[in-house]
Specification:
Elements (H helix, E strand, L loop, with lengths): L1 E4 L4 E4 L25 E9 L7 E8 L6 E4 L12 H12 L4 H10 L6 H21 L9 E11 L2 E9 L6 E7 L4 H15 L3 E4 L3 H10 L2 E4 L1 H13 L5 H13 L2 H14 L14 H13 L1 H4 L28 H15 L8 H18 L10
Parallel strand pairs: 6-9, 9-10
Antiparallel strand pairs: 1-2, 3-4, 4-5, 6-7, 7-8
Helix pairs in contact: 1-3, 2-3, 3-12, 4-5, 6-7, 7-8, 8-9, 11-12
Amino acid sequence: MVRLRSPQVERVIRFPRTEEVPKEGRPACCARCGAKRLRLNGRQRRRVIDPRLPEVEIVRFRCPACGHSWRVYPAGVKRKALQTDCQKVVSATLYVLGLSYDRASEFLGALGCGIVKSTIWRNVQQLGEKARQRFRACQGRLGKREVVGMDETEMKVSGHGITVGFVSDPQTGQIVGMRLLASREGKEMAEWLCEVAQQLGCEVALSDELDSYKQAAEEAGLEHQLCLAHWRKNVARRCKKIEGYSKEKELIKEALSFLDQVAHKTIRWLHRHFAKAPPPRRGETQSPASPMRMLTLEILENWRRLVCYQKKHKALRDKLGRKVPRNYTLPATNNTTENAIGRGGKIRYKMMRGYKSIGSMVTTTMLIASVCGVLAGVSFTSLLV
């Protein structure tokens, strides 16, 4: 067991324990005929591949009545398998933590329990499939989540980009949903968001500035909060490309910092100031006032999405038209989903050339999310806890 302590949370990874001898005593009866008089038919030492034990003891029993015989194995040892359960988890964890299959094989070989890289790959796929099954089993027990963070990333499978969508709980940082997306278009995003809203009963969606999320939130009937960190970086990047207007740029940055009524009036005043800037005609060079006009217009169009976290009441009222106060907090940034994507395999993926199949990508991602969720102290249905 590896125990990592921090001031806030205790993060524990428990590896399966391998016993040297079976703890179970003599069986009560024969599994075939039910006879209670059994005979100890011998003990056998068997070599295993394990970080702690070079070999274990196997006990053999025999029923005198029907002649049936069977073996009793110690905990962590399987029939017709040289490597133990602990060896499988250790090898898969080494891969999750950043070692390649070759380096993980060399590391285990230095400990005296080396296995080939193809066996490590099978261990990763087997444990990843178990993590996937547990993740599916806990989907129906997630309960209601009023706020969900949504984001997507791209991974290569056989040289082709595959979009993977992540859904997280901004309050806990827990990954509550993953899905392979055909594209980043509005229709695909709307179907995904409607499915999440129906399953989790969410009321507010938190995302980056991608236009597909805006259309999807409107079709799903949800409030939408844009990530202020992404939005402010995008505005700062666009302001650097525009020549001049240093005072106006400072007013825009200051307005996005406060996001109050005075800031809204400032953006409206700036938009009226640049409203007469004509767009460039064919063959003409664009004037700096034209992109300033488009920037202020875009800020005004998305203002309600930028200040959604400041509202104290829900958008939907009760049957009598009364305001219903929010009983949850809405963060202003989507950092928890970004962290979830990193824990879900993006950081590990940057050290790889890609995956060979979609099935391998899904199972490996589930295992990485499971292990890294435990290391980060985030609640996740883990294979190791």
